[in-house]
Amino acid sequence: MAPPSSASSGEDSSTPDTTQSQLQHSFLLHKASDKLISSGKARRRRRSIDLSPTKTDDDDKKQSDDERWLRMEAFQLVWSRIESTINHVLRNINARVFDHIRRWVWDSFNAIKPLATISPGPFPLVSQVTCTQLFTGLLLTNNMEFVDDISTFQELGLCLKSHGCHVANLSSFDFSSKNGIAGCLTSLLRQFLMSTFDAADMSILASWYSRQGNYGSPVVVIIDDMERCCGAVLSDFILMLSEWVVKIPVILIMGVATTLDAPRKILSSNVLQKLCPCNFKLGSPAERMDAVVEAALVRQCSGFAVGHKVAVFLRNYFLNQDGTLTSFVRALKIACVQHFSTEPLSFLLGWLLVKEDSKGVQSEKAVKLASELLSLARNQIAEQTEVTIVHSLTELTKLQKLWSTVVLCLYEAGKCNKTRLIDLFCEALDPDTYNLLASDGLTGTGKGFVQSLSSDHCMLEQNLSYRKGRLICQLLGRVRDLPAALLCRLLNGWKNLTVDVPEIHDKVKELQSIVKLDEGSCKPDLKEISRRHTSRSPLKIGQSQSINEKAAILMDCMVRDFMKPIECTAFHEIVCYRNVENLQSALIGDSRKMIQVDLLEFHKTLQCSCCRRSGNIPLPSMPDTSIMYTLAQEHGDLINLHDWFQSFKTIVIQYSRKGTSKLKKSPLKKRKERNESENKSEASIQARFCRAITELQITGLIRMPSKKRRDCVQRVAFGL
Amino acid sequence: MEMNDADDEEFGFSRNYFLAKELGGSAVKSHSKLSDINIVDEQELRAAVSNIEPKHEKEIKDLISSYKRLYPRWAFDLRCGLGLLMYGFGSKKTLLEDFASTSLTEYSAFVINGYLPTINIKQVLTSLAEVLWDQLKIKRRTPSKSLSKDQQPFSSRSVEDLLAFLDGSEDRTSEFLVCVIIHNIDGPGLRDSEIQQYLARVASCPNIRIVASIDHVNAPLLWDKKMVHTQFNWCWYHVPTFAPYKIEGTFFPLILAHGNTTQTAKNAVIVLQSLTPNAQGVFKILAEYQLSHSEEEGMPIDNLFATCRERFLVGSRPMLNSHLTEFKDHELVKTRRHSDGQDCLYIPLTSEALEKLLVEMTQ
């Protein structure tokens, strides 16, 4: 094991050993010792059995260690759930298209098969024109960001494999002009034959296919993004496959990002002739996004939740910054990791999940540990026992379920007018909206639900209007204007969604019964009919409104009484991640800005007393690179090296003068020494200048002189 | 007062671009020449560079040790499958290695010095594969089991095969075993899209996690969305250290050093040390020839090839050419036309410098 170098010393001690390692391309810093691996395992095993914090003196460290491991396990539990839910959702979205593709693949294969059987010779017979056509599926991804579709194509491959096809997934990197046709052929052989060949040749593939076990199934080649492929290489590849199609029944599937006529743009007509295309289409990114938000965050598959600000950030990040679902999932993962790494009580979320699953008592000890932690953290509730935590957590889960039910009901109402779930999700999480209503005494916890239903108008619109909750108010308006048939469908949807919440469920059923009464005599004036019926109906939703109005009031009450944002409930810290600043800085590192800020405002980071800046004037005590970069701000896009050096020298010399003036020496000695030291200081100033330039070059903030302009360097960044 | 300063500063930034464009003309007109500076002797300059008095030592030390409190968080991130990307001004070499030595002791730590301009990715991947192989052997507790017969040793495998091994499609859990620390993943030797693709594939290997540092402001442009979101899985941390870029800066020519074109013996040694022994051998032959034929314009390429093949340093002409390209890239070797029209190779160093270089190389 190499000796660990000390980070505490800014200067590295350059022993021959470290210099050697600094010049090696790579080296092993240390090995994981066998002992450590096994002890880690043992610790894990012990922990899962014995969670009780020991009462001995060394328990502090052990407890924090245990707690960290618990949090790690909780993260793994939670994230694996979220991840599998997301995968499941995405798979479901694609399932129908995949099924079509699968059937088409087998149909196409059956069309090729008879041709293949009549040409048993070693070489392909290109006698018939028709037999050289290549069945090609064009899968329109509707998405310029191919990163979102990587997994789709892998899934497609797996799906086809599971149905007995031989599948190879090629990416656009395999079709680069650098490697040419050999690149994609090598990759093809590697995937089918599981080994590499020096000379890639289709005949190897043909002999592989004729072997027992391989013969009799279609060979599917999937190219994820054909528009990124090099056109010439792809053309060659297609021509080659079409020549061999009699020997190897290849079926091609190509992803297309823009429009279905993309092949026409990159392939020549003689290649296009070889293709026998069939089109398929995937869902749009926005649809997928809403499905993922619904499954992972609204339905809360894992119990993990995000706060309002984080939700808004995630939405904006998706809409404005990146636009890929992959980045959204990654952001969610980082939020989850940070939650478990920074929130001490977060491991209870793992306990909640385990409890849900097995109803076992094994993790009761985790609660005990939590209550101790909690009492340490919050002295004021030190006397509270674990009962409080268990109770609060159960309450939290209950409230969360109610919240998600109401959000889904709202989403159901907004579906016909294409409301985006992510927008609704953000609004439903806003604690300000809830607090605003609560301050006016308009919220309840379900107890006053029946009473509030008897009001004759919606409260939300009056109290929220355009300040907050605009989307919810819009939805209320939408429900009021809904045609009868759609309202019927909406109520049906609500009925299914609210099965677990009897209070709402009953009211929905009541509303439905009124509608059913009307169904027989569907007259244009719905308002009249409903008015007639309400007088007879036992439902006490208002007295004289239309069914639409009643539905709106029901929705209004649901929102006020049951949609309590997570941040307004006690103990939400356990399940809810709220630190949007941390998330943002972990996700989007702005190196361009921050490195400049480091240089220009270094005293804020270093917190030294000597360099409090006065305006833009560089001080000699500042780091040389900072002085240089501050000076560079005064220059144009070209910096004259001579001028730059002179101004640097003027600044640092102030410092040297100050330093030397303090020394008191005899005049003779002084003169001699001064000459020497001036020489020395000139060299050192030049050296410092050189190193500062090198450091600026490493950061990429300046470009080196060109041959034409030897005396100038070029500035690269202007402003932060 | 401070508010005014801040406003001024902000205003300064916003108008900077336009000012820069306006000043562009006048800067060229400034006829001051670099040669007007009374540049000290190169050796003296180099001596002075290595003896620069550090500033703010205490604050820098405090700053770097203040990051120690983040170690548990970083380790947690790695265990959760994220990659760490450290940025901010100052060398982060010691910081990263200290982090690995203190918080990642249960995993193997493998360091890649991305700041080396001559870094060879295949060599790096080979060593990494060996480290992972060792680690897997320990895990499976089958120390006697070596690579099976049909498998070649790592050193003779192709990059693609190495990556396939690292990715480990065999029966292997996705347990975190090896932490790869890449100093300057944006280093000049790694700024190639193919190399970054390889590194991204390494990062997505189930048993490997990456901790990397960047220093260049435009480093994020090296990666596409696939690499960032699905392979590297970066979690960014802003950790300025203000520590001098000592080793990272060695490979840049000093701007005031003698027209900054000729390499000195010292710099040449550093570059040569990072090359393969065979490449060093080729260079030595050239140097020896130049010393013994100091009056000639250089060594003809055919001549060099013949000598190198005799000594089993190269097997083919392309192999020699690849060495020569590397030398030329670092300005260790130049070509000029011989009087008889043949291309000749020479090392742009004086005989004394060359002698010194040979002595240092043999040490």
Automatic annotation (TrEMBL), chain A:
GO terms for molecular function: DNA replication origin binding. GO terms for biological process: DNA replication initiation; lateral root development; response to sucrose. One of its GO terms (cellular component) is nuclear pre-replicative complex. InterPro entries: ORC3, ORC3_N, ORC_WH_C. It is found in: Nucleus. Residues 1-65 are annotated as: Disordered. Keywords: DNA replication, DNA-binding, Nucleus. Residues 1-13 have a biased composition (Low complexity). Residues 46-348 form the Origin recognition complex subunit 3 N-terminal domain. Residues 15-25 have a biased composition (Polar residues). Residues 592-718 form the Origin recognition complex subunit 3 winged helix C-terminal domain. Residues 55-65 have a biased composition (Basic and acidic residues). CDD domains: Orc3 (cd20704). Belongs to the ORC3 family. This is Putative origin recognition complex, subunit 3.
From TrEMBL, chain B:
GO terms for molecular function: DNA replication origin binding. It comes from Rosa chinensis (China rose). Signal peptide: none annotated. GO terms for biological process: DNA replication. This is Origin recognition complex subunit 2. The keyword Endoplasmic reticulum does not apply. One of its GO terms (cellular component) is nuclear origin of replication recognition complex. The keyword Nucleus applies. Component of the origin recognition complex (ORC). Belongs to the ORC2 family. It is found in: Nucleus. Residues 59-239 form the Origin recognition complex subunit 2 RecA-like domain. Pfam families: RecA-like_ORC2, WHD_ORC2. Residues 292-352 form the Origin recognition complex subunit 2 winged-helix domain. InterPro entries: ORC2, RecA-like_ORC2, WHD_ORC2. Component of the origin recognition complex (ORC) that binds origins of replication. DNA-binding is ATP-dependent. ORC is required to assemble the pre-replication complex necessary to initiate DNA replication. It comes from the Eukaryota.
